[in-house]
């Protein structure tokens, strides 16, 4: 990377998600009331028109968004910190999250436990060129777009203006990916899905033990690299003490990791599948394309079981309901902390958001998911494709470190404190 490039320290980047805590004021109280009214109306609508699980999923989405925002729990920043300066604290929180998740997922998947009689099955996807290309693209995209799939949703809820651009082109990219889906998944080389639990013969007990060992290995590797690189520590984020911390200030990463794992397990038992994000983007974009006269129903992606999804209301789609919940939950969390504020747009961050959104949307379709569906959900489901996704997304992150300065985006340096 050119030494002439002016790199802004991470601690100086102004972002409503990472700004100092301010006291709750009247205008923010009005925002909270407005969000609660919207939530109540949406909840009543879902109860009256949709399946019984949809209101429950909206509540789970709210809790997911609230947790993500309050912990500033990131996948994009975790990958970037590790690949740039070797700080692996956030990655270790991922390992805690995954360890709790596999512990909860194992019995749920083994016995098909569910709240609404749907059964339960994990995300286990094929291994092929589409996975390699898609996850690598996603790694680049999330570093340019300023957030991953979950990060885009909770940043939108927190008022980060540029993320609205990222979300729009995330939807566009996902729709294009849906149109090209048969080429990548049927016309190119691919292997059958591999489950550590069922394909290998280890069973869920053996797969759980192997998974825990792998998470421990990754955590140990991050510690070794951190010490060898003398990686800078993460700067403390302003917070409060006692019960007020529920509403204001930052939550500990590891506490949020446990909360996210529990919420994902509850999602699995509620709708019969783990938490996902980006399939809804393909649905939204395809419905918009159909409205403009494009025959999306003929696309291979929307054949079979997906055909009914395309024909139904978006509120019948469980992933859509979860996404709406995440956005509203993050909005409530930001307003409760007095932090909701729209940020400024620049030519550089808008251009990066467009490219990043397209890369993430397209990549997620190719890779059978994003940081949530493929990485979090896939690994928690004992799928080998989740591990491959993580490795290739890290590789994409490394490439993106050299691209970010071209758009005026910061890259952490060893002398910087990390937010």
UniProtKB/TrEMBL annotation:
Domain of life: Bacteria
Any one GO cellular component localisation term in the record: plasma membrane
Membrane topology classification: Multi-pass membrane protein
Major subcellular site: membrane
Keywords: Cell inner membrane, Cell membrane, Membrane, Transmembrane, Transmembrane helix, Transport
Keyword Membrane: yes
Localization per record: Cell inner membrane
Coiled coil spans: none
Positions of transmembrane segments: 31-48, 54-75, 96-117, 162-184, 204-225, 246-266, 321-340, 352-376, 382-403
The family this protein is said to belong to: Belongs to the TsuA/YedE (TC 9.B.102) family.
Protein name: YeeE/YedE family protein
Organism: Filobacillus milosensis
